[in-house]
Amino acid sequence: MANPQTQPPHVVIVGGGIAGLAAAHRLQELSREREIPLRFTVLEASGRVGGTLGTEQRDGFLLELGPDSFISEKPWALALCRRIGLEPELIGTRDEHRATFVVHNGKLELLPEGFMLLAPTKFGPLLRSRLFSWSGKLRMALDLVLPRGPQQDDESLGSFVRRRFGHEVLERVAQPLIGGIYTADPDSLSLAATMPRFLQMEREHRSVIAAMWKAARHRPQEAKSASGARWSLFVTLRNGMQTLVDTLTARLSLGQIRQHCAVSHIERADDGQWRVTCLDGSTLAADGVILATPTFQTAPLLRRLDPQLAAHLDTIQYSSAATVNLAFRRDQIPHPLNGFGFVVPDIEHRKIIACSFSSVKYAGRAPEGYALVRAFVGGSLQAELFNLDDAEMEQAVRQELATFLGIQAAPLFTHIARYPRSMPQYRVGHLRLVETMEKQVARFPGLALAGNAYRGVGIADCVRGGEAAAELVLTQVVAL
Ligand SMILES: Cc1cc2nc3c(=O)[nH]c(=O)nc-3n(C[C@H](O)[C@H](O)[C@H](O)COP(=O)(O)OP(=O)(O)OC[C@H]3O[C@@H](n4cnc5c(N)ncnc54)[C@H](O)[C@@H]3O)c2cc1C
Question: I want to staple 370 with a disulfide (CB 3.0 to 4.6 A). Which of 157, 189, 366, 389 is the partner?
Fold first, then answer.
């Protein structure tokens, strides 16, 4: 506990990804709002903060290495941007080009208009679509008459989609779209932890399609009051996601960030004071600790303190993914690029899992007359492709771009970014596991976990998790 005569309470945040930075920023905000004196230190193992977020500028192109946007429906990242003065920098998708293609039998087919992740909301475009067979379309429509499934806590995405809409929807759309977001196998992915609203729709309305029609009818009124109403579903920053990291970092005046400081373990003394030890042997005393690291890093930090909690953390598996940015002259790409990109179902057995037409999706990503595309490689279903060396990976991606977009020319440049063990796999029962871990952590006042392993992998969820950890720890530190 800090001596009130000398030092204000000190909170150590381990991990300088977006969750850790959001936690630090929220601590600072709360300290000022509630007039509670406070210091914090962010300890980051690598030589830069931001974790998976990163943007590079090259020859007039703007390359997103990790995430290229965040969702506006979940308000936390958008709200943070507003609070740190980034609202004028926010840009939405260029919705006049909004369309997604799906690879089917080796060719790009349009995802029918109105198809919402795993269910159709418009029958006209669905009937005309070549993405599904007639029997597949009829099977999808069965959702309208099928009874509710058995009452259960959780179910895999694969099982849910198969029983409500049939295997074609699962293999051709749900797997590449949702599996793509989570880089996961839909047959082990928890529906409750990833797409709870579909589970809720079935519980409340029986038919998911009917529930979506109903929601669509109410949307105009809701949109007026929703915080994201001004925005497209996905938003980004004019100069890239790095702006969020740089702006947050620049505003953290109540504390400091230490890079090249990998934490090896944490201990708690009988008086509740924490001791955080780094790999270089240095130690920091703290009144509170927020661990915003991936669970395979968090587990060893806590092993001495609570081996059972560490064992639970160890059960969360991660997949790896790489992004491959390729710059072209526009006239080198025969395809009209009339969409935001395409996804590749696993059943197609190709070497990429998705490709974004980055310079179509957002303004300012390529100079006039040029185009930027970005492919994703790896994930849990194609883990071996993540291990290709750079030359092999570029070659594999170029082969796929030749097939689907007709690009024969060499790119002006290619940039490969690798994210090993970056995407936690939310397996069936994930939420129960998280609740158990939260109860275990609650036994140690002043300690909190944050990051993409727990209640959402997206940036908005990571911001929420970091901010919630800050609020919890501050309350407990003040109460100590
Ligand atoms: C390729 C890719 C694309 C994505 N696209 C999107 C997208 O478009 N939109 C979206 O919303 N989400 C997207 N995501 C997901 C999202 O970016 C991540 O889930 C999120 O950024 C994770 O943030 P985090 O703070 O939890 O973890 P990280 O970003 O992993 O940060 C953890 C930090 O902890 C540090 N660390 C680890 N161990 C220690 C230690 N012992 N001591 C000190 N520091 C340590 C690490 O160096 C790292 O900086 C994407 C993810 C990937 C991989």
Answer: 366
